[in-house]
């Protein structure tokens, strides 16, 4: 499946024709809002006039829109050289044999990091390792199922990380439901997997890497989050809860270690073409993993569409969706929409399953 044809590029971002109307509205809004803001500020008593409250809100939201546009299109991220790129340092990536994790491992290798790969399938690890070694950097591989990690395996991971200088940790491993379902329908096995993989593995990996990062007063930790923590997700309640944990753990830790030179980023992602999302065809809202990861690594430390501290939504379409959803749409309205969306996905999944059984 080929990606949509790129109409034009701006920095690391490529825009397809279906992006043009939304981009045009954004830029037009910025232009009009700036006109209103600057013209009103020149009028005597502007900030004190009751009649100008509407213009004040226009100016306020325009300022937010300008900040968003600057973050997405102009503002550079923290350079990866700060964390040891091309200096013999290592990046550790969990869940790295498919989708975002695989592309992150490859892109970090292209940026000059050696890569420690941790994932479940030994065969897939070997395949990704071969691709990375062809780039010209070193790899180490550890095969582990994060839903049931033994003490011996945690010791192996710790020893592997302690033996190298880790500049970047990307906690990417994660699972979701097979399809949206009521919470009582979710199996105990799935619930345990969600807790162990989405939460405990992230905390354990972070605890293992922090001592050496604190000693050097430098390091980057990226925790893969989800829009399921931006807005509660009916029919994905346990998954949404685990991603809420990722969000608040990341933000709390980021504040905790900021003064020690360590950057912790909660990466909040909407749909991307991947095995986990089951999205195969790229679109304006659902990019391929490769351009998405390129944008992520080019925008470290940049909030993009997020209003949350230490949280990044750097990809244009995702950022715009979050900007509108967080700032312009009432929470209950957005939640009702989410209910209808996921309820519809559930019905389609059940219909497909029933059809398969009948055949």
Uncertain regions: pLDDT < 50 for 5+ in a row?
1-19
Distance between the termini: 28 Å
Helix content: 40-55%
**Which structural category do the helix and sheet elements fall into?**
alpha/beta
How would you describe this structure to a colleague?
By secondary structure, the protein is α/β, with parallel strands linked by helices. The chain folds into two domains: 16-73, no CATH class; 80-327, NAD(P)-binding Rossmann-like Domain (Rossmann fold, 3-Layer(aba) Sandwich), CATH 3.40.50.720. 50% of the residues lie in helices and 13% in strands. It has ten helices and nine strands. The protein has a seven-stranded parallel sheet with strand order 5-4-3-6-7-8-9, with helices on both faces. It has a two-stranded antiparallel ribbon with strand order 1-2. The longest helix has 29 residues, at 188-216. The radius of gyration is 22 Å and the shape is globular. The two termini are 28 Å apart. Mean pLDDT is 89; it is low at 1-19.
Per-chain topology:
Layout: E1 6-10, E2 13-16, H1 20-41, H2 53-73, E3 90-94, H3 99-110, E4 114-119, H4 122-135, E5 139-143, H5 151-162, E6 166-171, H6 188-216, E7 219-224, H7 237-257, E8 262-267, H8 289-298, E9 311-312, H9 316-327, H10 331-358
Parallel strand pairs: 3-4, 3-6, 4-5, 6-7, 7-8, 8-9
Antiparallel strand pairs: 1-2
Please supply descriptive tags for the structure shown above.
single chain, alpha/beta, Rossmann fold, two-stranded antiparallel sheet, 10 helices, globular, disordered N terminus
């Amino acid at each position: 499946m080929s990606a949509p044809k790129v109409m034009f590029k701006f920095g690391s971002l490529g825009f397809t024709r279906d992006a043009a109307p939304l981009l045009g509205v954004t830029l037009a809004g910025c232009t009009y809002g700036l006109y209103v803001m600057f013209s009103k500020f020149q009028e005597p008593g502007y900030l004190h006039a009751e009649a100008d409250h509407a213009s004040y809100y226009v100016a306020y939201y325009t300022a937010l829109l300008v900040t968003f546009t600057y973050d997405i299109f102009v503002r550079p991220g923290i350079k990866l050289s700060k964390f040891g790129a091309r200096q013999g340092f290592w990046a550790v990536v969990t869940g790295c044999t498919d989708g975002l994790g695989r592309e992150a491992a490859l892109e970090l290798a292209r940026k000059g990091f050696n890569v420690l790969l941790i994932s479940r399938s030994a065969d897939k690890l070997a395949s990704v390792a071969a691709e990375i070694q062809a780039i010209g950097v070193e790899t180490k591989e550890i095969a582990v199922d994060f839903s049931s990690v033994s003490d011996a395996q945690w010791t192996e991971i710790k020893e592997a990380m302690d033996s190298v200088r880790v500049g970047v940790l990307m906690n990417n491993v994660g699972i979701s439901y097979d399809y949206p379902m009521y919470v009582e329908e979710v199996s105990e096995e799935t619930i345990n997997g969600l807790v162990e993989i989405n939460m405990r593995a992230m905390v354990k990996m972070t605890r293992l890497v922090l001592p050496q990062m604190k000693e050097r007063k430098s390091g980057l930790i990226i925790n893969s989050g989800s829009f399921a923590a931006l807005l509660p997700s009916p029919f994905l309640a346990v998954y949404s809860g685990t991603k809420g944990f990722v969000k608040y753990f990341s933000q709390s830790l980021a504040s905790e270690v900021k003064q020690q030179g360590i950057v912790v980023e909660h990466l909040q992602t909407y749909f991307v073409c991947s095995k986990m999302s089951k999205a195969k065809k790229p679109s304006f809202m659902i990019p391929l993993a490769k351009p998405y990861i390129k944008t992520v690594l080019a925008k470290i430390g940049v909030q993009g569409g997020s209003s949350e501290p230490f949280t990044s939504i750097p990809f244009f379409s995702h950022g715009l969706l979050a900007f509108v959803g967080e700032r312009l749409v009432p929470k209950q309205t957005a939640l009702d929409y989410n209910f209808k969306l996921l309820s519809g996905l559930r019905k389609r999944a059940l219909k497909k399953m029933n059809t398969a059984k009948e055949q």
